[in-house]
Amino acid sequence: MKAIAERRLSMSVIGPVLGLIALLVAGTLMNPNFLGWDNITNVLARSAFIGIIAVGMTFVITAGGLDLSVGSMAAFIAGLMILMMNTALPALGVGIPVVLLGMATALIAGLAAGLLNGLLITRLGIEPFIVTLGSMGIYRSLVTWLADGGTLSLDFTLRSFYQPVYYGGIMGISWPIIVFALVVVVGEVVMRSTAFGRHCAAIGSNDQVARYSSVRVGHVRLMTYAALGVLVGVATIMYVPRLGSASSATGVLWELEAIAAVIIGGTVLKGGFGRVWGTVIGVLILSLIGNLLNLTDFVSPYLNGAIQGAIIVLAVVLQRESKAAG
Amino acid sequence: MKAIAERRLSMSVIGPVLGLIALLVAGTLMNPNFLGWDNITNVLARSAFIGIIAVGMTFVITAGGLDLSVGSMAAFIAGLMILMMNTALPALGVGIPVVLLGMATALIAGLAAGLLNGLLITRLGIEPFIVTLGSMGIYRSLVTWLADGGTLSLDFTLRSFYQPVYYGGIMGISWPIIVFALVVVVGEVVMRSTAFGRHCAAIGSNDQVARYSSVRVGHVRLMTYAALGVLVGVATIMYVPRLGSASSATGVLWELEAIAAVIIGGTVLKGGFGRVWGTVIGVLILSLIGNLLNLTDFVSPYLNGAIQGAIIVLAVVLQRESKAAG
Amino acid sequence: MGVVVSQAALELRQVSRSFGPIEVLHDVDIALRPGRVHALIGENGAGKSTTMKILAGYQPPSSGDVLLDGQVAHLRTIAEAESHGISMIHQEFNLAEQLTVEQNIFLGRELKRGMFLDKATMRNKTRELLGRLDCPVSPDAVVSGLSNSDKQMVEIAKALLRDTRVLIMDEPTAVLTRSETAVLLRQVRALREAGTAILFTSHKLDEVCEIADDLTIMRDGRVVWSGAAADMDEHGMATTMVGREMSDLFPAKLGEKGDMALEIRNLNVPGYASDISLSLRQGEILGIAGLIGSGRTETFEGLCGLRPATGDIRIFGQKVRIDQPWQAQALGMCYLTEDRKTRGLLLEKGMRENLTLQTLERFVERGRIHRKGEEAALDKAIADFDIRGHRESLIKNLSGGNQQKLLFAKTLLAEPRIVIIDEPTRGIDIGTKQQMYEFIRQLARAGQAIVVISSEMQEVIGLADRVIVMRQGRIMGELQDEEASEDAIVRLAMGVGGNTPAREMTQ
Amino acid sequence: QDDTKVIGVSIPAATHGWAGGMNYFAQEAVERLEEVYPQLDFVLATASDPSKQVNDIEDMVATRDIDALVVLPFESEPLTGPVQNVKQSGAWVTVVDRGLSVDGIEDLYVAGDNPGFGRVSGEFMAQALPDGGKIVVLRGIPTSIDNERVEGFQQAIEGSGIEVLGMEHGNWNRDDAFTVMQDFLSKYPQIDAVWASDDDMAVGVLGAIDAAGRDDVKFVLGGAGMKEMIKRVMDNDSMIPADVTYPPSMIATAIEVTAVGLVSNAPVSGDFIIGSVLVTPENAEDFYFPDSPF
Ligand SMILES: Nc1ncnc2c1ncn2[C@@H]1O[C@H](COP(=O)(O)OP(=O)(O)OP(=O)(O)O)[C@@H](O)[C@H]1O
Ligand SMILES: Nc1ncnc2c1ncn2[C@@H]1O[C@H](COP(=O)(O)OP(=O)(O)OP(=O)(O)O)[C@@H](O)[C@H]1O
Ligand SMILES: [Mg+2]
Ligand SMILES: [Mg+2]
Questions:
Q1: I want to staple C251 with a disulfide (CB 3.0 to 4.6 A). Which of A210, A218, B181, C441 is the partner?
Q2: Is the residue at A19 inside a domain?
Q3: Mutate to test the pocket of ligand 2, among C176, C292, C474 (most ligand atoms within 8 A of CB)
Q4: How far away is chain A from the Cα of C78, in angstroms, using its nearest Cα?
């Protein structure tokens, strides 16, 4: 009995890893440049946005919640940040202060947006799906409105100054990768080795029990949304120097991608169990699929979505199948 | 005890209805045409697609499932149907046989697609979120591919022949409204007074208990997805005659709208409790919001989404607030 | 023990409690004194759990006072009650299923070193606590995989962790065997020595006699008797509780065996049981005894298609194949689960929906469920099984015993020809128990074939015509009615060679 | 093998009619040119949002070593930096339709004229309603393109006495346009004409007008040159008196010119602006391509 449980666990651990390895092998076979430093760095750096957000999403989902608004929130925060920096530019001049101002804006806006979602969910007791569907619409509209239907662009000189935050790094490793790694490590530690992580799982598993054990259920839930908001802010700080602009097309469907990554990684959608490292694997699987499809052109680009969809399902089948077999 | 339960129930019943009435009143005040026959018929007829799908979604969600693929599925089925009808046209000629062929195609394709989702979910035990996220990508790609990136259009003469299915009707009530009403009535009866509806709620509430009570859990779940597939087919049968075309832009975000309608109507996202009439109110609330925003112009159209989002949240707050108070 | 008049640590005075318009407690007085075990007994639905919840701060009283050390206290939150050293073990499990044992025990009061969890210490502490309870589960085991008795031990460990002045235990022994009960009672004695005030409920009156210093008996939400436990014997308790004279608990084993109903050859349930062969005739009651974890539940779940199993099964002479539970039911065989809360009943639904869930097809007329028929079935079930509680209430608001009765009614509504009853009287009061035994015997007389799995040896012996004893997933032996004694069962259950003074016999 | 040259083509995905047509022409050009020039290899990637497009371009550089890039930017701003990086890696850059926000990056620029598109439409409107009139406008997906077109249109109708009753976003989508038009019809008892600004939206608008049975709407002006609409212009359909081109085939032109430049070592650089032309029954035949999917 116990042996079975352990074996089962270890297969559900190996599952997503196997999926990832399969993708890596397929990629290398298709194109020798695939495992090249450039490509790997590109893929990791661009996974960072979704990745950072997905780490926060792992906590929200583990605690039995959901957040559909993250993509729009990212777009809105990016827009706000750009507006703020452009406005302050004449006064502050191109330099570190204005960039710091932008970063502070992103973090504060993220925190506020997360708290807002969280308060509506915990205080008014509305389904997270509805609250965040609503705020998704609201943020998406607001960014369109801020940009007057077009695109908000960061001042060009400022952009060149700020760009190293995406493209630069230390020892050849770019900042987004470093920040992503940091967020993952902190996330993993928090999930595993702090009371907060445990409380999230307990609440997702059975909030009544958690309440009876004097866990501050509302507070913990609120914190998961707030943390997610801040992480969306962090992701935006990396995103803005990359593209230097925000529009209504920014961050579209990021929420679905983040949730998918979380679930591919083995976190349970109904809550109660989550793992941050799994989410990382989920994120990598998703971005590698996109990358792989660009490596070759053996199918009509119209069918990319189909292949992507099939691989997502397969990655999870692999995981569950081996679980059932184990 | 009883009084509490009843009062609570009655408030949660009144909640969405109140929301709907508030919208109707607001609309009438803002534009006298709002309650006109034409406008109401328009709104009802165009709600029919989402509405028919949302009725099916109510069962899926009540039984603890989810389906993200319905929008893409509708697009794919519409594409298939148009292709089929165009191909058969030279042989069959414009007439009822070719339309019937198209309808049969839609129903069979819907059933097949629903069964496919359902089998992957019940037999392989994969999260519905993942399966239907995958099939969403697949169907969306397939329709783009069928249409060669463009739009599949029904042969013009055939379209004129088929058009009455959307625009025509009996006694001034157009077919989509009639079919929608029928689906709702049947859905309500099935949910409330058949073993199937009861079993859906039992499975969504606790599938272990259902299994130990000799309910055919896998079978019932599968049926909910199959029924949803067929209803997507029905919706498509009404959709195609409207504009006679299908493209990759068809049915985008219908899934979110359908799920939102279900939840606004009071069905619980985690399963165990569902009501079809609530879903209808949810659908109406959603389409009336859009209608109202088009009929009035007191805000920038960029902000339509924001208002829509805010009203969705408000409609549910109203419902929950009064519940908490009751 | 003489009457020690010490200051009550926790006390209820004139407490009433209503849910909506219905008052379920009327002017209850009860006082828990340090260093004494207070037993609270009463029929199902008498209000024991409600009283306990009020004492522990889970629910406020509608009127009356809660006194802490003689002072009126308003325990607004559980945390507040906890800070006064009050802790409670619930009748229903109160564990997060997806978390591990250690995570559950320390939930809400994790030990930290700096910002991080001190897992090593928590794990050791868990091991130590479980060791005190003779419970061998690993601190890292996930709770959802534990047996009921282990879950109960985890609950107890969780309560022991808190430094308690007042410990309230709601039917902690309902899912325990005698040996486990003995371990628990040992802990209770130790706490009593240390000066803890203890409130304890059980439907097993022998335990009450053994441990209680003070006794309160409730009926229909009122205290009907209160005093020193020594003033009351088992018979008196039963009579006062039920409000009528109690006769023999078990019905006479009359009845004739009919045709062969069920034959099992070499049933294997991978991981749990192997080589199970047995047979059962109509009109017969077969008892299955064994220690907890001996694989009895799994064997019969395997038989009924609830888990993967292989073997040769014949029902009324027909060879059958059962892969799904509904197939078993179609063949006239039903299994009544031991786990009413997670497998037996839908807690968020009402009595009617639960009662008919298993047999809905029968209430369908022209495709639609016939509501009147359902109501009639509910009327009958309420009458037959004496289910108390409001008709419209959700299952989760019923008292534990009444839930069990409803589960019983639900399974029997399917009118199975073969019925397997797992732990039939868990949490049922003594008066109702008698009724249920009578009922089971009547079913047998009516020609049904019945299997009773029970951890209460008295029950197996008193009820069954024949007893099979299991150990580690195998049948160790079969005892005919006259051979079936506690001693014989224990020998088999512990392994044939061992004629050691079994721990099961500690009482 | 060594002299095989790789051309990367990065375009937005087919999420609306015009983009669908553009996708078709891009694929058709790639297939055709791969046969004609065996020494050329093409990589075609479609993106659903700007950041995916940047990913695609990065991948082309990192894993496919492209020698030339033909890009139709999803949006100008976000693509400017990444395309600049491609240019710095030494590859040839052709930009189609949407200019980058920094001048001088691209070697070749092939584009339509969005303000011109609006202007031509506006001029037609002014000329078709000489005594002024009440019109409604359906806008596309909120983007700079849409803004430029609408501005061009508004400038052109200034002072012509035309009153714009309302503008809503139909997102270049038939269904959305249908819904918006139905509501416009409920809201305004008198509408003289509709600027649908896109042929897909025109389809939806016509559907709504038909269904409402309203005869106050004299005509609908679409845009982009969808074959069904051109056909109706050709057939003197009074509801569709004209159309304004914005050919999705410009992507094919761009790919072809780039390919030819790459193989012939006689690169063609410069700006090619494909102006929007008013299609009327007189010249409609020149714009009618029955085999195109768009
Ligand atoms: N939350 C609630 N809402 C409504 N009624 C309730 C609620 N909780 C308890 N009751 C009712 O109060 C009565 C007393 O229940 P309680 O659980 O205290 O009984 P008990 O003595 O513990 O019985 P058992 O021996 O079966 O556990 C029951 O009739 C029950 O239905
Ligand atoms: N050999 C074993 N090793 C470890 N755990 C076991 C073993 N056998 C049983 N268990 C645990 O006990 C559970 C089964 O306990 P359960 O109490 O249902 O068994 P049972 O024999 O039917 O006992 P009872 O019916 O007396 O409760 C299993 O889910 C498992 O967690
Ligand atoms: Mg109780
Ligand atoms: Mg058991």
A1: C441
A2: no
A3: C292
A4: 7
- Reading the block at residue A218, the tokens are 């509302």
Judging by beta carbons within 10 Å of its beta carbon (0-12, 13-18, 19+), is residue A157 exposed, middle or buried? exposed
Q: Name the pLDDT band for C267 (thresholds 50, 70, 90).
A: very high
Please give the average per-residue pLDDT across B19-33, as a whole number.
83
Query: Which residues on chain A are in Cβ contact (under 8 Å) with C117?
Result: 193-195, 198
Helix (H, G, I), strand (E, B) or coil at B214: coil
Does residue B242 lie within any of the structural domains? yes
Q: CA nearest A50: which of A305, A289, A246, A239?
A: A239
* Nearest chain C residue (CA) to A192: C117
* Chain C CA closest to residue A272: C98
Decide: helix, strand or coil at residue C297: helix
Q: Which residues surround ligand 3, an ion (CB under 5 A)?
A: C 49, 91, 399-400
Return d(Cα B26, Cα C322) in angstroms, integer: 60
Maximum Cα–Cα distance across chain D: 68
Measure the CA–CA gap between C281 and C418, rounded to whole angstroms: 9
Tokens of D171: 């997102």
pTM of structure: 0.89
> Which two tokens mark C464?
């069954």
CB contact (8 A) between residue B150 and residue D17: yes
B46: in domain: yes
A161/C contact by beta carbon, under 8 A: no
Residue ranges of alpha helices (H) inside chain B are 2-30, 37-62, 70-92, 96-123, 128-146, 156-162, 164-167, 175-193, 195-205, 207-212, 217-243, 254-264, 276-295, 304-325
Range of the domain at A141: 36-325
Concatenated DSSP letters of A259-324: HHHHHHTT--TTSS---HHHHHHHHHHHHHHHHHHHH---S-GGGHHHHHHHHHHHHHHHHHHHHH
Flag whether A18 is in a domain: no
- Rounded to whole angstroms, the Cα distance separating B247 from B241 reads 14
Residue A192 CA to ligand 2 center (angstroms) comes to 29
Residue of chain A nearest D60, judged by CA positions: A294
Q: What is the mean pLDDT of residues B90-95?
A: 88
Tell me the domains of chain C and their CATH numbers. Answer: 10-242 (3.40.50.300), 255-332+416-507 (3.40.50.300), 344-415 (no CATH)
D43, D102, D144 member nearest A151 (Cβ)? D144
Structural domains in chain A (count): 1
Q: Which residues contact C3 (CB under 8 A, 6 or more apart)?
A: C228
| B294 Cβ under 8 Å from any chain D Cβ | yes
Q: Give me the CATH number covering residue B262.
A: 1.10.3470
Amino acid at D169: H
Q: Does B242 touch chain D (CB under 8 A)?
A: yes
Surrounding residues of ion ligand 4, Cβ less than 5 A: C 297, 338
Q: For residue C435, how far is its CA from the centre of ligand 4 (angstroms)?
A: 23
- Distance (angstroms) between ligand 1 centre and the Cα of B1 equals 12
Whether B324 shows a pLDDT value over 60: the answer reads no
Distance C296 CA to ligand 4 centre (A): 6
Q: E strands along chain D, which residues?
A: 5-12, 40-47, 68-71, 92-96, 108-112, 133-139, 162-169, 193-195, 219-221, 243-244, 270-274, 278-279
Residues of chain C in contact with residue A210, where contact means CB-CB under 8 angstroms, are 96, 107-108
Q: In which band, very low, low, confident or very high, does the pLDDT at A325 lie, cut at 50, 70 and 90?
A: very low
D147 vs D141: CA distance, rounded Å: 10
CB contact set of A275 (below 8 Å; sequence gap of 6+): A58, A188, A191, A265, A266, A267
> Which residues of D fall within a CB distance of 8 Å from A36?
62-63
- Nearest atom of ligand 1 to the alpha carbon of C403: 26
Say whether D142 and A42 touch across the interface (CB within 8 A): no
Q: What is the pLDDT of residue C505?
A: 36
Residues 6+ apart with CB under 8 A from D186: B31, B33, B34, B36, B38, B39, B42, B295
